[in-house]
Amino acid sequence: MKLFRVLMPLLLAVVAVLCFTPAAWAFCGFYVAKADTKLYNKASQVAIARDGDRTVLTMANDFQGEVKDFAMVIPVPTVLQKEQVRVAEPKIIERLDAFSAPRLVEYFDSDPCEPAYDRVMQAAPAPRAAANEAGRARGDASLGVTVEARFNVGEYDILILSAKESGGLETWLKRNGYKIPRGAKQLLQPYIRSSMKFFVAKVNLDKFEQSGYQFLRPLQISYQSPKFMLPIRLGMINATTEQDLIVYILSPKGEAEITNYRTVKIPSNTNIPLFVKDEFGEFYKSMFQTAYTKEDRKVCFLEYAWDMGNCDPCSAEPLTPEELKQAGVFWLDDNSSDTPVSPGFRRRSPSSNVFITRLHIRYTRDKFPEDPTFQQTSNRESFQGRYILQHPFTGELQCQAGREYKRSLPKRFEQEAQTLAKLTNWNIQDIRKKMKLSVGNLTYSWWEQFLSWIRL
Fold this sequence. Notes:
Elements: E1 14-15, E2 19-20, E3 29-34, E4 43-51, E5 54-59, E6 71-76, E7 85-87, H1 90-100, E8 103-108, E9 145-153, E10 156-163, H2 166-175, H3 184-193, E11 197-203, H4 205-211, E12 219-224, E13 243-251, E14 256-258, E15 262-265, E16 270-271, H5 280-294, E17 299-307, H6 321-326, E18 355-363, E19 374-376, E20 383-384, E21 386-391, H7 400-424, H8 428-434, E22 436-439, E23 442-445, H9 446-454
Parallel strand pairs: 4-13, 8-21, 15-17, 16-21
Antiparallel strand pairs: 1-3, 2-3, 3-8, 4-5, 5-12, 6-11, 7-12, 9-10, 10-11, 13-18, 14-19, 17-18, 17-20, 22-23
Helix pairs in contact: 2-3, 7-9
């Protein structure tokens, strides 16, 4: 059972195709696959829509087991009322994931003997920067625990608690049927010192059966607070291995970043061998682990930053205004009453301005001892995790330009092999063996092809 896990597992490479013709390039680019969250076994996802000190937080749920055993304890900066909590549709997190996932694209060289071929075909151009517990759930004054609010939302029974000391809170939770793992007292204490409240959720079994859902839906809360942070330390209580957290931050301003750890861009815009098309999931996991280790396992990686109004290339269509509202964006227009709004919220004038930042944190207790805190910036520069497959031209090469193009290919292939080895720590000899290429309607192993070309 996972008691304090808040969010939902990541990423399985999915194949789809999208063809577009970039300006000033004579070949077509295809979207091949995306590194979405199903790639990871132990991962969580959370979406944060924030403008100023107003926040709508959507938490995907990765609980596996009997729903009667589910419990969620989340520190929150303020007492929440029923109108500030709702259940969200799981697909909204899936949409954010698909739109922002690192992607694999492929391009095809044009015929070097065509008159229009007047450029060296190198890397494709980078994208333009551009319930039943109610009777027992009374606060015990001797424990210093107060039930600030109690209500039901969808299939969840919700309590908002305040506490004076962590031992009392731990005892109260155990007395009221919440199975608290060892170590909770130590991790609860900093939140109590910070005067934070505790959002506690259990499943109302009758309402869950009536809902017809097979899995628990995400919970979405809205609040107003200058604190822009995520309480991830409680998620480490049961953790035996590294945890992955994907954070989607939606802002009317620009890119978001972590302030108490370094935010580093994931390696991107590199050409890699063609065989990676069939191994993209393994490639991305190896590349991420290599980068994570290189950065001493204590950074946050930027995987995507883009204006939600467009994409290039698109791994999924941008979210519609209605989907953005479901994701918590409250500043689109004055009719977004279906998203929870804290007392005192004032919506912005009509606008479709939404910038999405995708941050990927892999954390352990020793390397990530503090909860991540965030800040919004005005930086609207576009960035994406993007990896390029570039197919050589396979037709007849009878002209001088064609012969020169052919001579240039071995160097290009070797560079792709070296790049892949550096990114993943894969063995360079194994990479070369996998590189099978077709040129001039003949198929050679990578090294046979290389040796034949250097003799030209």
